[in-house]
């Protein structure tokens, strides 16, 4: 049964299980092939474009029991081994290895290390971008390290990418080729336009959090929009909004101050 133009599956039997295949191409390119079938009782033979395609454990990758995200991590993704265990493949500091944890467990462990959690990170990102699907989030708050998912974070085949490590992106049929600062490349089954939108949101969130960490981003009671006129060269205010909560606090403080002044006057008169 042909699953793709370059991947053939050979098996006999009825009991199968869905697993993800991670294929390494020449030139350090990584291609996620999607879903294939594995036999429960024995390993099957896989042929990829005339090459032997091995499962995760058979490739001899280094396995770690524990890992937290660092600034040097380029991407990580969930992969299955031959025993149907969900592991995580990580590219960190140009080193490719496996972790005996799921991607969500790694994210939670990392955020807990800094006193946060994944739910709080996602809610915080929504405060900046609004309620958007597959929102980027900050995984290392002190350094504003921002990751964004290629799919829903709850899916096992989701890839989490560090936006600060992206050097260049190129369209490739219905996929996107990502070039990292380490010299590695990653090909993901995502349309180029959709990927660029996710990347732009992640870059925006990273810049905002980095500015807040440095104390350069100050909230204001007034939100103004300016219009630049080419003829006159002047800036004019087109809209001015006030923060309702801040305005109510100001009003309540002024009323409290007035009531205190009245009480003082009454005491003096008495």
Q: Could you explain how this protein is built, in words?
A:
The protein has helices spanning 103-113, 118-129, 192-213, 244-269; strands spanning 7-10, 16-25, 29-39, 45-48, 51-52, 63-64, 73-80, 86-92, 95-99, 137-140, 145-149, 159-162, 166-172, 175-180, 185-188, 222-228, 235-242. It is an alpha+beta fold and 270 residues long. The chain has two domains: 62-213, no CATH class; 222-269. The protein has a seven-stranded mixed sheet, with helices on both faces. It has a five-stranded mixed sheet with strand order 2-3-15-14-13, covered by helices on one side. Strands 1-4-5 form a three-stranded antiparallel sheet, with no helix packed on it. The protein is extended and about 90 Å long.
Alpha-carbon distance between the two ends: 99 Å
**SS element count, helices:** 4
Helix content: 25-40%
Mean pLDDT: 74
Question: How are the strands of the largest sheet arranged?
Answer: 6-9-8-7-12-11-10
SSE arrangement, N to C: EEEEEEEEEHHEEEEEEHEEH
What structural class do the secondary elements suggest? alpha+beta
Q: How many strand elements? A: 17
Percentage of residues in DSSP E strands: 35-45%
Radius of gyration: 26 Å
- In total, the number of domains comes to 2
Runs with pLDDT <50, length 5+? 1-56
- Please tell me what the overall shape is: extended
Outline the biggest β-sheet: 7 strands, mixed
């Amino acid at each position: 049964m042909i699953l793709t133009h370059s991947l053939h599956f050979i098996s006999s039997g009825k009991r199968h299980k869905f697993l993800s295949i991670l294929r390494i191409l020449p030139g350090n390119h990584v291609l996620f092939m999607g879903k294939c079938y594995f036999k429960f009782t024995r390993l099957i033979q896989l042929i990829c474009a005339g090459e032997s395609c091995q499962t995760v454990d058979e490739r001899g990758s280094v396995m770690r029991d524990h890992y937290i995200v660092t600034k040097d991590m380029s991407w990580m993704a969930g992969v299955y081994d031959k025993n149907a265990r969900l592991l995580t493949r990580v590219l960190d500091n140009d080193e490719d290895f496996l972790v005996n944890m799921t991607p969500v467990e790694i994210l939670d462990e990392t955020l807990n290390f800094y006193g946060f959690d994944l739910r709080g990170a996602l809610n915080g990102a929504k405060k900046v971008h609004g309620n958007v699907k597959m929102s980027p989030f900050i995984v290392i708050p002190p350094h504003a390290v921002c990751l964004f998912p290629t799919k829903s974070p709850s899916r096992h085949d989701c890839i989490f990418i560090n936006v600060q490590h992206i050097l260049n992106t190129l369209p490739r049929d219905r996929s996107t080729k990502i070039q990292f600062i380490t010299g590695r490349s990653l090909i993901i089954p995502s349309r180029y336009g959709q990927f660029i939108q996710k990347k732009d949101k992640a870059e925006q969130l990273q810049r905002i959090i980095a500015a807040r960490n440095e104390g350069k981003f100050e909230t204001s009671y007034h939100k103004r929009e300016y219009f630049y006129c080419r003829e006159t060269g002047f800036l004019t205010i087109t809209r001015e909004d006030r923060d309702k909560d801040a305005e109510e606090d100001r009003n309540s403080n002024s009323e409290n101050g007035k009531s205190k002044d009245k009480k003082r006057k009454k005491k003096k008169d008495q």
